[in-house]
Amino acid sequence: MGIAVMIVSFAILEGFRNEIQSKIFSFGAHLQISKYDTNNSLEVEPIGGPRLEKELRRFPQVKYTQPFARKTAIIKTTEEVMGVVLKGIDEHGGLSPMRENLVAGKFLTFNDTAASTDVLLSRKIANKLRLKVGDDALFYFIQNPPRVRKFRVQGIYQTGLDEFDEVYIIGDIRQIRELNAWPDSLVGGMEVVLRDFKQLDRTSDNIYENLRYDLKLDKITDQYAQLFDWLQLLNRNVVIFLILIIFVATFNMVATIFIMILERVNMIGVLKAVGATDNQIRSMFFFRGLSLTIRGMIYGNLIGLGFCAIQYFFHPIPLDPENYYMDRVPIYWDPTIIVILNLATFLTSLLAVLVPTYMVSRINPVVAIKFD
pTM for the complete prediction? Predict the structure, then answer.
């Protein structure tokens, strides 16, 4: 049961952490480069996209880049009014992780010539504005002179994170270029996706040292520090949980071997009386304990992995997205963690089996034969 609980717990905790991270990365990538500005507004001065993209390709840790631009707007329907941020993306940049967050409709359809009028709304915004897939909505952009655009709801997404669901609408970056009178070479900023998120700090320092003086670089862990601090706290809880479970499993194994020895004190006395050595008797209990350990680990892996497989493929256990940021219990398959768990359990169980077997050497055969 100990190995089964550990496998299920790690699969769920890692699944939860990876699910939250993927939702954050779908909106902000790992790094974000924009024009250096003391203004805290979401709308920033434009930068040259092709030139910056060419410079970023020189870094081996950069997987791909995607240009973006943001513009604040007010959505007006027949019944509601709401302020939002329109985030424009490029059809070549992809924002492919965003496709995984769709709960209704389709992803944006980009035209070859004109800017697409399709947008993606979050489920929370769609519910507040009473919009559904296929509806049209008027976007009012506060600028000089003010502009109005009619957009069509192409799809509805849901991340469960209020930082995104209550603010952002996804659209074509060419719409923002037209509103701001930018040429095709200008973008609001560049999002950078790395090959290895664990190299975030090192790679960001390397890129920052080679950036032009008028550009700034923001790490995703700084932009959403509270979320990542919370995920880091989950990692600490995982370590504590692992130690507690292994301790309980080890204690149970020690208790089991002690009981086996106490139940067979008479047998140990007889074996010693006929010439059996302590090492021979000790090895008998050791291999018996080893057999129990291996059998328990096999059953534990079958139960743990079986439960994870059922949840992964059939999702029988749902969650409330309002509280857990996802609609089902997530499962993440990590063979390395499973191997480490089994290895750690096996080694600690071996030590747990060895300790009580040394009790055999203290048993006096004369007293043991009379033991009741």
Answer: 0.75
